[in-house]
């Protein structure tokens, strides 16, 4: 199975290198091809998402992505900036569902922003719709009748967009503890009223799943008060952007959190939620676990290798249990030594 490796900028290549070592240990079914992306691609080829990179991403069964972002490129025109590469990949590949698990490894309870007994119960996946909502509606700046400036962004969803992400939510819940919480603001927003109606309609296909609804303001509170109540959350682009960052703080370090962006079939792009971290690039300080855990998601969701995914996640837990810590977790291990610790556990 062909895997596109897009290491990108900053710590991207460092964390991808450790991840490939781990993948090679658990399976011999993968074939890797590497291509430049982001600032690295701009410097080499004049574009953050060169045609050959996009072609590789299209041909591959799954994409393992490091990070993009390079301070040298900050003053480029918008379409040449490294960040455009990930937006382009999402659009070109039709990746509409962003899955972010938030799990606190119990060994890291002291690193969470929440009390250990609250944080210890966190085991959820937040699913954020990526292709619609206020990000893509009509937007602009105009003058009001009295000559004041007015900005506007239209929020819209059609029922097919909602049904498609709802199904991802129900399917994900089915593979976990069978509970789906749909988050909206149906008391105020028309889009949310449609969202709620469509989620209820789709729920007829999933009688085995326990469905609940929550307003987004309450969901923000409940994520801090009692995060253990959630199994799978499904929500729109804007609410998901905010709630998934909030949930990530429960997990101890940004260096621990994986993500998947999926299309309508089994294809996906897998990446750590963190960026290129230019402040620590090239120093061996990056925590590779977010990327290693992203690779586990790739095995599970795109490649049908669940047992191998379980092995990687168990090995990460074992490494942490034995005290393996990079600097972001309060330790002294280098990126490679953390990779070694996971390999030793495997
Ligand atoms: P982006 O805009 O690409 O999301 P960002 O500006 O949000 O990037 P990050 O690159 O994610 O920033 O870095 C934020 C902080 O977290 C930095 O101080 C960075 O060093 C730290 N950090 C990010 N990833 C890791 C990691 N894997 N290991 C250790 N520290 C990390
Ligand atoms: Mg960021």
Automatic annotation (TrEMBL):
GO terms for biological process: L-leucine biosynthetic process. It comes from the Bacteria. Homodimer. It comes from Rhizorhabdus wittichii (strain DSM 6014 / CCUG 31198 / JCM 15750 / NBRC 105917 / EY 4224 / RW1). Belongs to the isocitrate and isopropylmalate dehydrogenases family. LeuB type 1 subfamily. This is 3-isopropylmalate dehydrogenase. One of its GO terms (cellular component) is cytosol. Mg(2+) binds at residues 217, 241, 245. The keyword NADP does not apply. It is found in: Cytoplasm. Residues 2-342 form the Isopropylmalate dehydrogenase-like domain. The keyword Disulfide bond does not apply. NAD(+) binds at residues 275-287. Keywords: Amino-acid biosynthesis, Branched-chain amino acid biosynthesis, Cytoplasm, Leucine biosynthesis, Magnesium, Manganese, Metal-binding, NAD, Oxidoreductase. It catalyses: (2R,3S)-3-isopropylmalate + NAD(+) = 4-methyl-2-oxopentanoate + CO2 + NADH. The record marks 135, 185 as: Important for catalysis. Substrate binds at residues 90, 100, 128, 217. GO terms for molecular function: 3-isopropylmalate dehydrogenase activity; magnesium ion binding; NAD binding. Pathway: Amino-acid biosynthesis; L-leucine biosynthesis; L-leucine from 3-methyl-2-oxobutanoate: step 3/4. NCBIfam families: leuB (TIGR00169). Catalyzes the oxidation of 3-carboxy-2-hydroxy-4-methylpentanoate (3-isopropylmalate) to 3-carboxy-4-methyl-2-oxopentanoate. The product decarboxylates to 4-methyl-2 oxopentanoate. Its EC number is 1.1.1.85. It is an enzyme of class 1 (oxidoreductase). Its cofactor is Mn(2+); Mg(2+).
């Amino acid at each position: 199975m062909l895997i596109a490796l897009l290491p990108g900028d900053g710590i991207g290549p460092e964390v991808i290198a450790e991840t490939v070592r781990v993948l090679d240990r658990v399976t011999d079914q993968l074939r890797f091809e590497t291509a430049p992306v982001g600032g690295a691609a701009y410097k080499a080829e004049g574009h953050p998402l060169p045609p050959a990179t996009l072609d590789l991403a299209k041909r591959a069964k799954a994409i393992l992505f490091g990070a993009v972002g390079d301070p040298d490129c900050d003053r480029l025109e918008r379409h040449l900036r490294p960040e455009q590469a990930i937006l382009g990949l999402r659009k070109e590949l039709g990746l509409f569902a962003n899955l972010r698990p938030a799990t606190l490894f119990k060994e890291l309870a002291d690193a969470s922003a929440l009390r250990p007994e609250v944080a210890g119960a966190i085991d959820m996946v937040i699913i954020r719709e990526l292709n619609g909502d206020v990000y893509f509606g009509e937007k602009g700046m105009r003058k009001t009748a009295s000559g004041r400036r007015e900005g506007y962004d239209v929020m819209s969803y059609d029922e097919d967009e909602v049904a498609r992400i709802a199904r991802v939510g129900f399917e994900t819940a089915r593979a976990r503890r069978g509970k789906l919480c749909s988050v909206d603001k149906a008391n105020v927003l028309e889009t949310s009223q449609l969202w709620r109606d469509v989620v209820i309609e789709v729920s007829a296909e999933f009688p085995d799943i326990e469905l609940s609804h929550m307003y987004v303001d309450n969901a923000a509170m409940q994520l801090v008060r009692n995060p253990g109540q959630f199994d799978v959350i499904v929500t729109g682009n804007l609410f998901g952007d905010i709630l998934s960052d909030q949930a990530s703080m429960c997990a101890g370090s940004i260096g621990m959190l994986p993500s998947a962006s999926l299309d309508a079939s089994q294809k996906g792009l897998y990446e750590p939620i963190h960026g290129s971290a230019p402040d620590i690039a090239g120093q061996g300080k990056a925590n590779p676990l977010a990327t290693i855990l992203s690779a586990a998601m790739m095995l599970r969701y795109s490649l049908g290798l669940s047992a191998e995914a379980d092995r990687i996640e168990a090995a990460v837990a074992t490494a942490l249990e034995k005290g393996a810590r990079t600097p972001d977790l309060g330790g002294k291990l280098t990126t490679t030594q953390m990779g070694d610790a996971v390999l030793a556990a495997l």
